[in-house]
Amino acid sequence: MKKLTLHKIVLSLAFSIFTSGVVAAEAQLLEVTHKNAGLVCKDCHVKNMKDNVRMTTCLECHDTTELANSTADHPVTNPHKNRHFDTETNCNYCHHQHKESENYCGSCHLKFDLVTP
Ligand code: HEC
Ligand code: HEC
Ligand code: HEC
Ligand code: HEC
Is the pLDDT at 26 greater than 70, yes or no? Predict the structure, then answer.
């Protein structure tokens, strides 16, 4: 009986951490971040909604050299400058706008456990 109660407390504690908003804030989709920064659909979907959004569109506002410098001291590895593509890895391999972003490097290198906004 005692064991069960403790188990329940641990469970509800875990649940309240989950619902406290800390987790939710970290998982904010980029579409929200960009909307809050004042972007509209047409800023990325330049010609029409069916067009693929290319990396060059991202580069109209984000600079690859500046990005590489800003994450140069990343404790895992620099996501914006690497052995394979230097500073020109396609942003969309890692960052997604309308669904959760992913860790492209981790699909081959387990040691690079990057958390991608
Ligand atoms: C910052 C750039 C950006 C903005 C702003 C943006 N999108 Fe996208 N959108 C993308 C990218 C990149 C993709 C390709 C999928 C991916 O990697 O997220 C995409 C894909 C899509 C797709 C294809 C299906 C899917 O979900 O992958 C739809 C539909 C879409 N966007 C609708 C919208 C609408 C509606 C808006 C405005 C409310 C919008 N987008 C604003 C970058 C953007
Ligand atoms: C029209 C300009 C514009 C375009 C195009 C654009 N962005 Fe952004 N992006 C911004 C602004 C503004 C911010 C917010 C900066 C801030 O508040 O720190 C931002 C923020 C971000 C962030 C930071 C999110 C965070 O949590 O720190 C990422 C990642 C990002 N953009 C990726 C992309 C990608 C990938 C593309 C191309 C699909 C793209 N952006 C296209 C203007 C743009
Ligand atoms: C290999 C995966 C990967 C690729 C490719 C990638 N990023 Fe990132 N990006 C990350 C990760 C991981 C972070 C979080 C870094 C941190 O924790 O400090 C990040 C952070 C960011 C930020 C917020 C931090 C800052 O310095 O302002 C922006 C903006 C951004 N990326 C834009 C881009 C753009 C634009 C591209 C394409 C030119 C791109 N990223 C390519 C993984 C990636
Ligand atoms: C499709 C699988 C794949 C992906 C995705 C990938 N790599 Fe690699 N990577 C390899 C292979 C295979 C090697 C060994 C061959 C070589 O040295 O080029 C390697 C070697 C490396 C090395 C040198 C050896 C080491 O382990 O230290 C680094 C650093 C590296 N990759 C970083 C990255 C980063 C950062 C990313 C994400 C932007 C990435 N890789 C994405 C397959 C991949």
Answer: no
